Structures are given as structure tokens and as C-alpha cells.
């Protein structure tokens, strides 16, 4: 049992690190599948392993340990560097971001803008972040601050990232079914 946990954790760490070096979707799918296989081995092994250390009365609390995550709400910042925007363009970007956030919130409950879209005017100091053939003297940095709080139906409210994955998968499946030309049997 200990060897299974040890080697699974080594494999998990290695595969998780390899993800950053991949350059195509097929490789990523294969590595993510292998990570899932390794994770599938670790959790039951940990539950069995921990059951040897605790009495029957203490096992319920001990078995929650592998599932424990720090309570936090997922927050993300999305940034873009664009040519300098005028007021009309900023209003259009704001409206587009807000509309997209509302659309995502229809299938990821708890998805919201944390604050209004931010526009920061910048100068040539951003040239190092822009490809050489697209460099300008004036830029606008657009920042969007997002927050995702889980629905707390089956998982804690701070498990927003899992809600995103589950909700996105459900939405994709719904759209695939609607796009089918022949009826399901």
C-alpha cells in the first residue's frame, strides 16, 4: 500500500510538471488522462492506509483529511495590452466583457465580475511585452477581475474551480446534443 501511494505521488508530480512542457492538445489529453489514473489509485489507497491508524470511531474524521482544501473563493485576473482606446472603444469593451460574464454565469453559477473593467493608459515601457512588429507608443492595459464561488450543492462553496469544470462540461454536452442532426436513441 505504501509503495502504491509513494509511486503514485511521484508519478502525479512528474506528470503535473510535464504539462507545462507540452505543445499540442493530444499530448495534453494523454497526460491529463494519466494524471486521472494516478489520482484514482491514490485516494482509495490513502483511505485504506489511514484506516489502519485510527479507530472506527475516528475514521470518519480521518478520511476527510485527503479531501480537505483551504476554504477560498477562486479569483482570476485577465489582462490584455491593446492600442490606446478612446472612450467609445472602452465602453464597447466594457459592454462586451459584461455580456460575456453574464453568459458564462448562466451555466457557472457564482461566476461574476469582481469589479468594473479597468483601463490603464501606458506608454512605451510596455514595448517589451508586445511583438516587435506591433509596437506602438501608446497602449491601454485592460484588466478584468473575476470571482467564482461554487454553488455548494455537492461541494463546499469555495470549490468554484470544480464547479467551473463541471458546469463547462455540462454546457458543452448540452450544446453537442442540440447540434446533433439525428435524434438520440
What does this structure look like?
Helices cover 49% and strands 15% of the residues. It has 185 residues and is of the alpha+beta class. Strands 1, 2, 3 and 4 form a four-stranded antiparallel sheet that branches. Helix 1 runs antiparallel to helix 2 (25-51) and helix 2 (25-51) runs antiparallel to helix 3 (56-63). It starts with a helix and ends in a 6-residue tail after the last helix.
Spatial gap, N to C terminus: 44 Å
Strand content: 15-25%
Alpha-beta classification: alpha+beta
Structure summary, number of beta strands: 4
The helix-strand sequence is HHHEHEEEH
Please give the share of residues in helix. Answer: 40-55%
Instruction: Give the overall silhouette.
Output: elongated
Number of helices: 5
User: What low-confidence regions span 5 or more consecutive residues with pLDDT below 50?
Assistant: none
State mean pLDDT (0 to 100 scale). Answer: 79
- Sketch the major β-sheet: 4 strands, antiparallel
| Cα-based radius of gyration, to the nearest Å | 23 Å
Quick summary:
By secondary structure, the chain is α+β, with helices and mostly antiparallel strands. It has helices spanning about 1-20, 25-50, 55-65, 85-105, 160-180; strands at about 75-85, 110-115, 120, 140-150.
Amino acid at each position: 500500500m505504501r509503495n502504491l501511494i509513494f509511486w503514485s505521488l511521484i508519478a502525479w508530480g512528474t506528470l503535473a510538471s510535464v504539462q507545462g512542457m507540452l505543445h499540442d492538445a493530444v499530448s495534453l489529453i494523454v497526460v491529463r488522462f494519466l494524471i486521472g489514473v494516478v489520482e484514482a489509485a491514490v485516494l482509495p489507497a490513502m483511505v485504506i492506509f489511514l484506516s489502519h491508524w485510527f479507530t472506527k470511531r475516528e475514521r470518519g474524521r480521518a478520511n476527510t483529511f485527503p479531501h480537505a482544501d483551504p476554504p477560498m473563493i477562486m479569483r482570476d485576473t485577465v489582462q490584455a495590452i491593446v492600442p490606446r482606446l478612446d472612450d467609445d472603444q472602452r465602453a464597447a469593451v466594457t459592454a462586451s466583457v459584461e455580456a460575456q460574464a453574464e453568459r458564462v454565469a448562466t451555466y457557472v453559477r457564482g461566476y461574476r465580475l469582481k469589479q468594473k473593467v479597468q483601463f490603464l493608459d501606458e506608454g512605451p515601457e510596455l514595448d517589451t511585452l508586445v511583438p516587435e512588429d506591433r509596437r506602438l507608443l501608446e497602449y491601454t492595459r485592460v484588466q478584468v477581475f473575476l470571482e467564482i464561488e461554487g454553488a455548494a450543492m455537492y461541494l463546499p462553496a469555495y470549490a468554484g474551480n470544480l464547479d467551473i469544470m463541471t458546469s463547462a462540461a455540462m454546457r458543452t454536452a448540452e450544446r453537442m446534443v442540440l447540434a446533433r442532426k439525428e435524434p438520440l436513441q
